[in-house]
Amino acid sequence: MDNSILNFIQDATQKGKKLLVILLDPDKTSPLEIPGIIKRIKKLEANLIFVGGSFVKNGATENFVKKLKDNTTIPIVLFPGDYSQITNYADGILFLSLLSGRNPEYLIEQQIKAVPFLKNTTLEIIPTGYILIDGGVKSSVLKVSNTTPISQNNIELAVNTAVAGEYKGKKLIYLEAGSGAKTPVKSSLIANVKKEITVPLIVGGGIKTKQQIQTAFNSGADIVVIGNAFENNIL
Ligand code: 1GP
Prior knowledge:
It is built from nine helices and eight strands. It is an alpha/beta fold. The site of SN-glycerol-1-phosphate (1GP) has 14 residues, from β8 and α9.
């Protein structure tokens, strides 16, 4: 059986096994902190590590991922803010399209710019539909992409965007309230999207407590991503 990251996620989703992801931003974390970070990640029993950020300095991602690899066998997946964050030292990459936005830069331009870096890559490329939901703050994704998030109340638009993503061939759908969101993606929105798609559903942004993680899982998230709360040692 193929032991790709996507296969691992699909298999877990099928079995109803929920997955926890810790998101690390190379710009906010010193490589010196990595051994301690890995200990905490193991304690939380996280299944995957995402690495990325909206404004990462050139070269920072590669050094950071190398150091992570020296310290753990947990799969590392790039969650890049732009194509300059691509490094072959990771295991996979979320090949994101910001489907909620109408900015061609994040729908297709960045993806084209990434191709020269991915042509001979060993990274597993995972087509992912990325959907920005209004989390009540001007998140970095919103600022960088200059796109309008989908309102938490516009369930129909969020569902149709997710389903269109699946029709377009995305293997994962990611509902993002934005890093540091005041309001994480609401249960009813998660539940309605989950009902209409067959691919695994990732939810992130503003989730800070074990209770909130559980709520997202119970609502239908297959994967929950935690960034700030881990970084700030709240979890
Ligand atoms: C991952 O961007 C989020 O989807 C992370 O958000 O930093 O608020 O956990 P937080």
